[in-house]
Amino acid sequence: MSKRQLMLQPCGHTVKRRRGQSQPRQRQRQHLYLVVDDWERGYSVRKIDIDAFDSEAHADAFDSDAEAFDLDEDAETLPEPPVIRFKAPHCNLWYFGGHGTNILAMPVSSEADNAFPVIDTKTLGLTLCAHPAGQKVYPKPVFASVGGELYMMVEFSVCVLGAPPPHNKDTQWSWTILSDLAPFKSSCIRSSALHPDGQTLFVSEVKSTFSLDTEKLSWSCQGNWVMPFKGQAYFDNELDAWVGLCRHKGGIGYVCCCDVPPVATAAKCGSMPAWKLGKDQLFSEDNERHLGANLLYVGNNNYCLIESLLHKKYNQPFKRCQGPRRLVLYVTKFGLKYDKNGELRTTRLSARSYEMVEGHELNDLCSTPVAFWM
Fold first, then answer.
1. What does the alpha-carbon distance between residue 237 and residue 301 come to, in Å, rounded to a whole number?
2. Region class of 19: left (phi > 0), else alpha (psi between -120 and 50), else beta
3. Residue 178 main-chain phi, psi, to 5 deg
4. What are phi and psi of 62, to 5 degrees?
5. Rounded Cα gap, residues 291 and 283, in angstroms
6. Which has the closest alpha carbon to 210: 230, 188, 241?
7. Strands lying side by side in the sheet with 275-277
8. Please, what's the b/e burial string for 175-195 (b: 16 or more CB within 10 A of its CB; e: otherwise)?
């Protein structure tokens, strides 16, 4: 046995800190949280550590010049045990929302209930949050976090959820409903993006783009143009642009970036900013197994794409009310950069795949994977 000299480290409470020297603050690690309907009684929340992905693993699966990698055959089961399970009727995935470290489980209530549960993924504590105006939300909501508050657009109404009440106060977490109605219906929303000023939310509907000043709580028309994204877009400081999934025909399956326009005033509407389509396709909507995709920004110029597909061994044609279906979830982490020609390219790409079987026979109308980075 070789001899090794052991150096004992001093106990933390005996170490004297130099005057003015602060202890470094550790940043809370974030994870990917998936809400899936793989339970016969409702929904499961699954936690995935995408930082553990090998940067080389499965990268060839997205290389058009390489032999295709079989992500279906290599799919893992979703991590066990689930973070939590919510007992609730199926086909309500789009009513789950995320804010900070909290997941709002709005489907977990009946018409007679005036509140729904919220789980804090950091502490695993559960709390109750009141429904807006005490009434359960039925139209599909659209969520956006701005300045520490959660904005929920339902029909023409905008509801705001502030900070939770102190734990020692016997009060319920509740919403504030803005007096000014939105100039569009929530079902018409095509995309949204937070301006880098941190207080202005851009929202595109079918033909126009509007902005909500969350300080003044007022809407402005930005012009008769529509952002090129499908769903939520994110500001990337390194690219100095908004980034999201492209909504245009011929660009579906690609990311795109768009210049951030100045906030227009009511007296002068802005014009459509310049945008650019990425060069690398991440998924194909023409794939008959494709169900939906969701893009998350995970910080430091990194993104996470979650694509939901029918498993290739699920040989039944896709029809509503025909299940339970066997699904596979492709989870891809990547970065973005401009190459020497100014083209938008993916980099640092890695992927994992997970399989699941739906816990019900009624196919959910929400085809977009429900996922949060927190």
1. 8
2. beta
3. -65, 145
4. -115, 15
5. 11
6. 188
7. 218-223, 209-213, 200-204, 191-194, 231-236, 241-245, 255-258, 275-277
8. beebeeebebebeebbbbbbb
The one-letter code for the residue type at 136 is: K
As a whole number of angstroms, the distance between CA 109 and CA 96 comes to 12
Residues 6+ apart with CB under 8 A from 63: none
Q: How far apart are CA 332 and CA 311, in angstroms?
A: 17
Cα–Cα distances (Å) from 161 to 73, 201, 202, in that order, read: 43, 15, 19
Question: How far is C-alpha 68 from the geometric centre of its chain's CA atoms?
Answer: 27
The terminus-to-terminus CA distance of the chain in angstroms comes to 47
Cα distances (angstroms) measured from residue 314 to each of 211, 283, 322, 325? 43, 19, 12, 7
Q: What is the DSSP string of 202-236?
A: EEE-SS-EEEEETTTTEEEEEES---SBSEEEEEE
Find tokens 């929202």 and name the residue.
203
Bond from prior residue into 166 cis (ω within 30 degrees of 0): no
> Residue-wise pLDDT tens for the chain (374 aa)?
444 333 333 333 333 444 444 555 566 799 999 999 999 999 999 999 999 986 545 555 555 443 456 888 899 999 999 999 999 999 999 999 999 999 999 999 776 688 999 999 999 999 999 999 988 999 999 999 999 999 999 999 999 998 888 877 778 899 999 999 999 999 999 999 999 999 999 999 999 999 999 999 999 999 999 999 999 999 999 999 999 999 999 999 999 999 999 887 655 667 889 999 999 999 998 898 999 999 999 999 999 999 999 998 775 655 554 668 899 999 999 999 999 999 999 999 999 999 999 998 876 667 899 999 99
CA distance 19 to 31: 36
| pTM given for the model | 0.88
Q: Cα separations (Å) of 143 from 151, 186, 203? A: 6, 10, 11
Q: How far is CA 85 from CA 37, 42, 107, 259, in A?
A: 10, 7, 12, 41
Hey, what amino acid is at 94?
W
